Prior knowledge:
This protein is α/β, with parallel strands linked by helices. Helices cover 43% and strands 17% of the residues. Helix 1 packs parallel to helix 10 and helix 2 (42-56) packs across helix 8.
Amino acid sequence: MNLHQLFLADLGPELQLTAETLRQASFAVRRNRNEWLLRQRTRAIIEMIAHTAEQWLEPANGFRALALREGPKETGWSAATLARGLDGFFRSITVESLEALVAQDLGDTRRLDDFGAGPAEHRTGRTSLAVGPELLVHLTAGNLPNPALFSMILGLITRSAQIVKCPRDASLFPRLFAHSLAATESKLGACLELVCWSHGERQAREWEDLLFAEAGCVTATGGDAMLEEVRPRIPGRTRFVGYGHRLSFGLIAKESLSPYSRKRLVRAMADDITAWNQLGCLSPHAFYVEEDVPGSAETLGEELAAELERREASEPRGIIGVAESALIQSRRSTFELRAAAVASMTERNLNRSLFFEPPAAVKLWASPESTAWTVVLNQDARFQPSCLHRFIELKPIRQWDEVLRFAEPFRHQVSTVAVAAPDDRLPEMARQMARWGVSRICPIGRMQEPPAAWRHDGRPALGDLVTWTDLET
């Protein structure tokens, strides 16, 4: 299967993009939106989106096949990693989940179709209608495809014309998804435009500023520095929704370390570590382990290492860059030196003084002759970002709430905490983490598979895009 040249991004580097081309594209998608998309009911749009997602789950689907064939070249992920990630995303896109999202954020599934009222509005004699921006511009990141695809879905639900700006080296998945939407309904695809350029290109700023001036709302996903550079350039009348860099980790309560529970726990931990090779904001950088019996975290580390070795055979990590590989080797060497130093110091001093306290211990398990996976048992519980690509630290703690103290320097960057804890402890743990600032708490094994209705960074995904019109009677 080959893609037709339906969007500007399909034309590749040979396209001589100009400001006038962008203006014409903006005009075209807005015209198509006003003539067709605005007239559709929310349920009809959701059914088209859900049908497209269902098609992506079919092994014979041409767009899926192209993604699995060409995706490893663009991303370095193996086809198995891509298949699992895409399946997790598209399984979450159903009629039921998208209607739940609309009802959750807007109060009623019909709020984008007609004026309506909830109980509070009825009491004050008002009805209201939610309206999406006429033109929605997305600046997408290149690390994971899911955020870009979901941004496009949100734009369609709000009946917005959309221009999706992709990095030049990360346009494949947004383009494939846009083509699949057009295959479901050509007029749906006509309300989308995709463009590509890199941040350093000579005219990048000019093109972006032109889109910002045309847009009713701009969404941006990327690093904090990129958001800070873009934010001042957004016109005052244009809404800006930014999603910056976030970190996530896991927390394992002592009750989850029994031999029976540990087998399932290890598989779930490996699911989170291997999903998208830890490159998403929802991926774990570390797992904190509440130890009741000394050595239980070490046992967990041994079993996790064995599971990651098995996963490498069935779902290989894929290719990474020289710089990323060098960073993993460097971090491994640091931990190996610390482990050797601790062993030597302990042997020399343990019997010399009654007051000697051994320094924090380190133990490392790693894939032989490659950087495919790394597990580190690190008694130093201070949180530090991982170098990713299946590199994980286990950090033993005495009580679970110590985690909040050790992660305090990163408090405002934490997105998701995955928890393995008994039902009687989880509510209080969740309350404390919510008040500390965690926006999502989920079971271990589901970090990279949030439901469609999840509140990204604690904000309502649809609610941040729409404007309300109140009708008073």
